[in-house]
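Final report, Chapter 2: Outcomes

The project's central promise was a pipeline that accepts a single protein chain and returns its three-dimensional structure in a standardized token representation, suitable for archiving and comparison. That pipeline is now operational. To close this chapter, we reproduce one record exactly as it appears in the project archive, with the input sequence first and the structure output second.
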Amino acid sequence: MNPTRSEGSSHADRLSSPAANIKDHYDAVVVGSGYGGGVAASRLARAGRKVCVLERGREIRPGEYPSTMLAATRELQLDTPLGHAGPRTGLFDVRQNDDINVVLGCGLGGTSLINASVSLKPDPRIFDDPRWPKTVRDDVAGPLEQGFLRANEMLKPAPYPQNFPALPKLQALEAMAAALVRDGTAPPGVFSRPPINVTFKSGVNHVGVWQNASNGNGDDVTGSNDGAKNSTLMNYLPDARNHGAEIYTELCVRRIEQSGDGKWRVHYQLLGLGREAFDAPTLSVTADLVVLAAGALGSPEILLRSKAAGLPLSDQVGAGFTGNGDALAFAYNCDREIRAIGHGAHDPQDIGFVGPCITGLIDLRGTDVLQDGMVIEEGVLPGALAAMLPGSFAAGSKHIGRDTDEGDTVAERAREFESLVRGAYAGALNNTLTFLVMAHDDANGRLRLVDDRIRVEWPGVGKQEVFRKIEKRLDEGTRALGGTYINNPIWNDLFDQRLVTVHPLGGCRMAESAEGGAVDGDGRVFAGAQGTAVHAGLYVLDGSIIPLSLGVNPLYTITALSECNLAKIAADRGWQIDYTLPSRPPAAAQDAKIGISFTETMQGFWSNAVQDEDYDRAFREGRRSNSPFAFTLTVVADDLDALIEDDAHAARMVGTVTAPALSAEFLTATEGTFNLFIKDAEDAAAKRMSYRMRLRASDGKVYFFEGFKRIRDEFGPDVWDDTTTLYITLREGGDAGAPIVGRGILKIRPTDFARQMTTVEVSNAKTLGEKAEAQARFGRFFAGAIFEVYGSSPF
């Protein structure tokens, strides 16, 4: 029996902090949280650096991943040449292109949340390829091998245990391998159980996170709800948090630029907090060192935008994209049980132990020519899709399937009918094996920025000979199982042999110089179109730097390269990385409280010629001299109870300010504090709303903003003016003691107030009812405070 969660261990503790907590400067900013970003965050924090992690997706914990078709659909975002559909923080990020589609994970942990977690080293001959810089080729036996050891220490890969339940899908793959050996088309010993990043014994792991043993649900590719999957959410990221890194989610990095003071400025958008309703400018944070780890589409996209904005970069940014030779196919309606559909929301007792997504490997890499090699792995179709599978596969079998055995048509049709009637866990679908193949394409795809979105261009990639060879192999394997071979449904003449990859690589490939790639062997970004000069403090560390297809699942190599290069980053700067394990959370975290947020836009005028408290005169002078001032601020209360019940009624703020008299570009507001309906110390009959925040301009100058709304019942209908008029003071410096540089007044326009009402969001609510109650409670508090002041007014 598995042990239960031990006292003091971390179980469902959130790693991320509210965006309003973000500071204006860090030693290092890491963009992305997958294998490259996770390593960077952990190692830089362990080196004593002040680290900020920016992740586009949400933090989704075990138990929150979709298990039904409806839930999975809600998590789908689709980017096509025509535009984007679906939530921008949806877990399943599908990029449709003319030549090859790409499937990515979007969330804290990146694609590690939805991959099959296989940790395989590539064929050693891979590193003989001259497309690798010499420094990498020279490091293979030393620093890179150490990187693999570090990766192993953190990811904890292990083969599927012999003492766990027997898996029909694993037995089917082994039978297929045996048939290939018997036929003489494969050498003996090609079958094995590969190392997978899955936990098989419950307990507190090496970074203080409780993990359950795998319950065999099979739903790895829609997120592991049993908590057994060793994604970066379970190791590198909590380790980074344990060592002081700050992690922020739902922030989309747009571009980077060099700051005038030698630092890097990272421009980002807040997602899901209502700023998009006001078409607000991006926010920014500065750092001495920036690591781009947004993946093989994300990092090139950020660099291409940055280049378009003036950052000198290699013309090779976007070149060398590869799908890692990925292929997907099925042995449908075989003559044996395979049981390779995940549990989803179904009762496990009704289905049986499916196992992790991938547990077996047919290793066909021992070819004379490296590029002729491939690996074949078995997979599991997610249970969330179970309802649509019988009809889809029956149609696919009829139109693009190829029956590999003869004489059992009646039995095959009976099994197919059984699936259509009883569902995917019976009949033909229960006898279907999913094939996942990695091989070698020519790595000649190109990423381009079109309408401000990354697109993949790779004419004819699906017609490369390697995919015909894969088809032949899988057809032979399907014949051994007595099934109908169904290839990738879009790999046909109708779709011009379009491919799908779940392992995108390249786009910021390594090279000796800028003429050949975007970064050098250490991941340093080249500072122009020619030569070896690099930008100090700017790195790319993710799958985008790999210059060719690996022919195996790439996560292990990405992690090892990142470990290797982070060690160099530290050594170059004289930093020491403490690799000691185990690590533990700094303190027991409390359960997340129900919180609330909203976004507000105000605008008006201010004047640096008025420094006394005559706000009206400052407003008039600012309007006369055309000195506008506007902000878009997101107010975040982590704990709705505290916001309502504490006398300070405090929340945090983050956002942007536009004030041409202070800066030609927008200023970023950080470390903001908002107080809602607090007592006015000067007038017992009044209340105040208070705003205080730091503003940082693009040239590095810092200002301090103070503002208040005075809520007091005067004669007449003054509630609108009081709640929408803000009296502001600007100080030159970072705190309330700095010299005053001006004053003014801001107001909310009715149209902006209407938009503001649509931005109210509730966080950490478990149900729609809980969310509605939180919104209603906040509304009652707001209305009650207004009534307390104006209740006896003629208004």
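Archive annotation: The radius of gyration is 29 Å.
This record, like all others produced under the grant, will remain available to the consortium after the project formally closes.
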